[in-house]
Specification:
It is flat and about 75 Å long. It folds into three domains: 3-63 and 223-329, Rossmann fold (3-Layer(aba) Sandwich); 82-217, no CATH class; 351-541, no CATH class. The chain is an alpha/beta fold and 545 residues long. Strand 6 and strand 7 (269-273) form a beta hairpin. The model is unreliable at 1-71 and 123-127 (pLDDT under 50). It has helices at residues 23-29, 51-56, 74-108, 130-147, 160-184, 192-217, 233-242, 275-283, 300-310, 319-327, 351-386, 435-443, 450-456, 469-478, 495-499, 506-522, 525-541; strands at residues 11-12, 15-16, 41-43, 224-229, 250-256, 264-266, 269-273, 289-292, 315-318, 392-398, 404-410, 460-462, 491-493. The strands form four sheets. Strands 3, 4, 5, 6, 7, 8 and 9 form a seven-stranded mixed β-sheet that branches. Strands 1-2 form a two-stranded antiparallel sheet.
Length: 545
């Protein structure tokens, strides 16, 4: 992962090297981050898996030019058909499930003493439920369109797909009540309990349906077929990352080399050939995605082959983007001069998200304060009996835009643990940690006083963990992007915590930096929910974060 392998600008004559898809299908062809924030590319276990594909390339010299093969490569046409079918399945399946749930609610409502009265309006429709169901469908499809809950590219994610469906259900309830109010006026209030009962049934049902669909869409017919152009450290790093992916979404057939060397392997993945092989694979419809791990200046001819493929709908994607989507972190070792990969200076953060973020902070801060008051007497006694020293521990940390604040924690180390100048990194089985401190750290109760920091606005619930100003200055010398963590408020938990855990040195902190930059670049409502769910699971299971 050395500097000589850095990925250079992906431009030629001012044009970005991306897929040249038409606007109506570009949304479905984008790279999707799955539930585990992975693209789901799969790499076969051994080289023998590629023999059939590689050997078939020997007889491709007479393949008809791509411009004459019905307009689009076979693989691309098949993928379009699959995406269209998947979109139709989502629409029909969601609608059918919605009708079944509403019917179930109307049947079960009298049994749970909610009644089954659906109010009629002033349009001559009485004691009928068709309008009620029709308004529900209108509200659902409107909400699903606004939240992109029926996007086929997200259907393979076992977390993102259910979460987007739940968000659509919440918005649907609001629209549904509003439409009922327009039709029947204040009588709509009599349906509120029925609608809430429907929501209570719909959340687990839609989640189960979307998770089952995610399992189906991870099967081979739904996977994209791709090659990596360039045999270098960047490509091998990506391949190693892909081997750890649990849910494959793309099959990597092999490498395309810069030269016409005899066919061989690299890191267990076949080298299929050079530019002529790439052209033949595109022409016969064997691939629908090209991953560029090559500098344009190193081989302009090979880049030209990729551009030709992009004209016919083949997705041509920079390796840094694929690595980012696969691993959930920014590949700082492989972005070269493309600093915009790590920093999006003009990214718009909606007011709605900022409102959500602040409401989340206030809700957790207030709940955390109540929990702190409840456990404080017991924990204070245990900390005092275990070792001499104060109950709380405060330390100066760097916050939003570099402003400093005092971060609060329950003391989990001996009172003289910070005698070393400038402090020292915490290590596994650190002898400075007290007996009660190990319990506090395992359950994360030592972090509970930070609810006060969140209420004061020093911290947020989700964000990069705050570090000492001296540490930040030191680590910024190793990587210029480290200070960019200060562009958002530090958090009690974060993407780096749930994906990597505690850093135990400069190298660990630089790995966490890549996760933090990913969060800053992609932070959203769904990503925040995902972090919260992962944090809860880690705390419940007793894993360190």
């Amino acid at each position: 992962m050395g500097g000589d392998q850095n990925i250079q600008p992906y431009f030629k004559n001012g044009l970005p090297l991306v897929s040249s898809l038409s606007p109506d299908i570009a949304e479905h062809e984008r790279i999707a981050v799955g539930g585990d924030h992975s693209l789901g590319l799969s790499v076969s276990a051994g080289p023998n898996s590629y023999h059939s594909n590689a050997d078939s390339l020997q007889n491709l010299s007479d393949v008809e030019p791509i411009s004459q093969v019905n307009g689009l490569p076979k693989a691309q046409r098949q993928r379009r058909s699959l995406l269209s079918a998947l979109h139709l399945i989502l629409m029909v399946g969601d609608g059918a499930l919605l009708i079944i749930l509403i019917a179930l609610v109307l049947i079960l409502a009298p049994l749970v003493h909610l009644g089954s009265y659906v109010p009629s309006g002033t349009f001559g429709i009485r004691d009928t439920k068709f309008v009620w169901v029709g308004l529900a469908l209108i509200a659902w499809y409107t909400a699903a369109n606004l939240t992109h809950a029926q996007n086929p590219s997200d259907a393979s994610s076992p977390l993102k797909s259910p979460l987007s469906a739940i968000c659509a259900l919440v918005m649907m309830i609001i629209f549904w009540v509003g439409l009922l109010y327009i039709f029947v006026g204040s009588k709509a209030l009599s349906s509120v309990w029925l609608i809430l009962f429907f929501f209570a049934l719909a959340v687990p049902t839609f989640s189960a349906w979307r998770m089952a669909l995610a399992e189906v869409t991870s099967m081979p017919p739904f996977r994209r077929r791709a090659v990596i152009v360039g045999v270098n450290a960047a490509g091998e790093t990506l391949v190693n990352e892909l081997k750890s992916v649990r849910r494959p979404g793309v099959n990597i057939l092999g490498y395309i080399s810069e030269s016409c060397k005899s066919r061989r392997e690299a890191d267990g993945l076949a080298i299929l050939g050079s530019g002529s092989t790439l052209r033949s694979m595109v022409s016969c419809g064997m691939i629908d995605m090209i991953i560029m791990a090559l500098d344009y200046k190193a081989n302009p001819e090979l880049y030209q082959e990729a551009f030709e493929a992009s004209r016919f709908g083949i997705s041509v994607v920079p390796i840094a983007l694929v690595y980012e989507s696969t691993s959930g972190k920014i590949p700082l070792d492989h972005i070269g001069d493309q600093w915009s990969t790590a920093i999006q200076s003009e990214r718009f953060i909606s007011s709605l998200y900022l409102c959500w973020n602040r409401m989340l902070d206030l809700a957790f801060g207030l709940c955390g304060l109540v929990a702190l008051c409840l456990v404080f007497p017991i924990l204070a006694l245990l900390i005092s009996l275990d070792s001499p020293g104060p109950i709380f521990y405060s330390q100066e940390r760097a916050g939003y835009h570099g402003s400093t604040f005092r971060m609060l924690k329950f003391r989990s180390m001996s009172a003289n643990a910070e005698q070393a100048p400038g402090g020292q990194w915490t290590t596994e089985h650190d002898p400075r940690v007290t007996r009660i401190g190990r319990f506090l750290r395992a359950t994360h109760l030592d972090e509970l006083p930070q609810a006060l920091n969140i209420l004061r606005g020093d911290m947020s619930l989700i964000g990069p963990r705050p570090e000492r100003p001296a540490y930040i200055a030191e680590l910024a010398k190793e990587n210029i992007f480290y200070s960019y963590r200060l562009s958002v408020r530090p958090g009690l938990t974060g993407w780096a915590q749930v994906k990597y855990g505690y850093g135990n040195g400069e190298q660990g902190e630089l790995v966490k930096l890549q996760y933090d930059l990913f969060y800053i670049k992609h932070r959203s409502f769904l990503l925040d929910i995902l972090i919260i769910l992962k944090t809860v699971s880690e705390v419940v299971l007793g894993h360190g974060i």
